[in-house]
Each structure stands twice: as structure tokens, then as C-alpha cells.
């Protein structure tokens, strides 16, 4: 992979990671409810899960979906249904002070598994393989691409979790918390626009 392609890949990973999407909305909500430190397993699951997805898509899972497009469609709509369920849970979440009582943040494995039903993660993985992977030394470049994605993704999603943690200090009244949670739920539902269209 040439330095120019590597830089372009890093830029694509940054734009894909920093822009709003299901992961970032959920991390903002997690940061506001549980704080940055307790959201670390969630963030690591997103980053490692996306890298593993990229490796598997590049290694041939994409050809399975080409051969059986119905499988991809089922996965896409199952992911959309799961996102709607998560939006409902976020909208109904209680006050920040009750965070311990009403649940816990995503675990590493839950966040990593979520990537497989996250439409934006699929777009990132397929986009990287299709646009940035040279045929020469393909598997070495695939590993390099997964490392670049991880190096760019973690700080990018950390911004969203830190934002949620900062907002946490401002949300003292129950009605403010409720409005914030509803706004996060609406953003999560809006992130499904690409799936529906």
C-alpha cells in the first residue's frame, strides 16, 4: 500500500468514524449515563469489532453475500430492528443517578457483536476493501488496513463518549435527562435512513 493510499485510507476511516452513526450515538448516551471510564469496554468492542469485520469481509465474507444476497438483506433488517429496540431503551432510560440500578454499559463482546448488525460498519468495511485494497500483497495490506482503522477509530469514537460525559455534568434535572435521552434515541433512529433508502 503506497503512502498516498494509506493516507487516503486513514482519512476515510476518520470521516467514517467521527461522523454520527449508531455507534457514536450509543457511545454518547453511554458516556452521559455511565461516564467515560465505564464506557471503555464498549469503545474497545467497537474498535476491535470493526477491525475483525474488515478482516473477515476482506477475506471473503463479501463473496458469500454476493452469492446469497438474501442473507445480507436479512442481516440488514435484523440490524435495523435491533437499532429500533436500542433507541426505545435509550428513550426510556431514567436519570443519570439511577445508572447503576437500571443497567450497565455495553460489554466488549456486545459492542463487537453489534458491528455485524450496524449498517455503517458494513459500509466502512466494504468501502475499505473495495476502494483501498490493492491486489498485490492483499492479505498483508488487509491487516495493515485493519490496524489503520483501529488507530483512527478509537480516538474518533472517544470524542463522542467524552461529549456524553461532559453533557452528564449539565443534566441535573430529570426533564433535561429525558429530553437528552429522547434526542439520542431520535438520532439513532435517523441513522437508519440509509438502510431504509
Looking at this protein, list some descriptive labels.
197 residues; 10 helices
Outline the secondary-structure elements.
Layout: H1 3-18, H2 22-34, H3 36-67, H4 69-91, H5 99-102, H6 108-114, H7 119-132, H8 138-168, H9 174-190, H10 193-196
Helix pairs in contact: 1-7, 1-8, 2-3, 2-8, 2-9, 3-4, 3-6, 3-7, 3-8, 4-9
Write a concise synopsis of the structure shown.
By secondary structure, the protein is mostly helical. The chain has ten helices and no strands.
In oligomeric terms, what are we looking at? single chain
- End-to-end C-alpha gap: 34 Å
Radius of gyration: 17 Å
Number of helices: 10
Structural class: mainly alpha
Tell me how many strands there are: 0
Query: What is the string of SSEs from the N terminus onward?
Result: HHHHHHHHHH
Sheet having the most strands: none
Global geometry:
globular
Low-confidence stretches: 97-101
State the domain count.
1
Strand content: under 5%
Helix content: over 70%
The mean pLDDT is 82
Could you characterize the architecture of this molecule?
By secondary structure, this protein is mostly helical. The protein has one domain (3-13, 27-196). It has helices at residues 3-18, 22-34, 36-67, 69-91, 99-102, 108-114, 119-132, 138-168, 174-190, 193-196. The longest helix has 32 residues, at 36-67. The chain is globular. The two termini are 34 Å apart.
Amino acid at each position: 500500500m503506497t503512502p498516498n493510499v494509506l493516507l487516503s485510507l486513514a482519512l476515510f476511516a476518520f470521516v467514517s468514524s467521527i461522523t454520527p452513526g449508531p455507534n457514536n450515538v450509543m457511545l454518547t448516551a453511554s458516556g452521559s449515563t455511565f461516564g467515560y471510564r465505564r464506557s471503555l469496554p464498549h469503545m474497545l468492542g467497537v474498535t476491535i469489532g470493526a477491525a475483525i469485520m474488515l478482516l473477515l469481509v476482506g477475506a471473503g465474507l463479501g463473496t458469500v453475500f454476493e452469492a446469497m444476497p438474501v442473507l445480507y438483506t436479512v442481516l440488514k433488517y435484523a440490524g435495523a430492528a435491533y437499532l429500533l429496540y436500542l433507541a426505545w431503551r435509550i428513550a426510556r432510560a431514567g436519570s443519570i443517578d439511577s445508572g447503576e440500578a437500571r443497567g450497565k454499559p455495553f460489554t466488549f463482546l456486545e459492542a463487537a457483536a453489534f458491528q455485524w448488525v450496524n449498517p455503517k460498519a458494513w459500509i466502512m468495511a466494504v468501502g475499505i476493501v473495495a476502494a483501498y485494497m490493492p491486489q498485490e500483497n492483499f492479505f498483508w495490506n488487509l491487516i495493515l488496513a485493519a490496524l489503520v482503522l483501529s488507530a483512527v477509530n478509537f480516538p474518533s469514537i472517544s470524542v463522542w463518549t467524552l461529549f456524553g460525559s461532559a453533557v452528564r455534568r449539565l443534566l441535573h434535572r430529570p426533564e433535561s435527562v429525558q429530553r437528552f435521552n429522547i434526542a439520542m434515541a431520535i438520532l439513532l433512529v435517523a441513522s437508519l435512513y440509509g438502510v431504509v433508502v
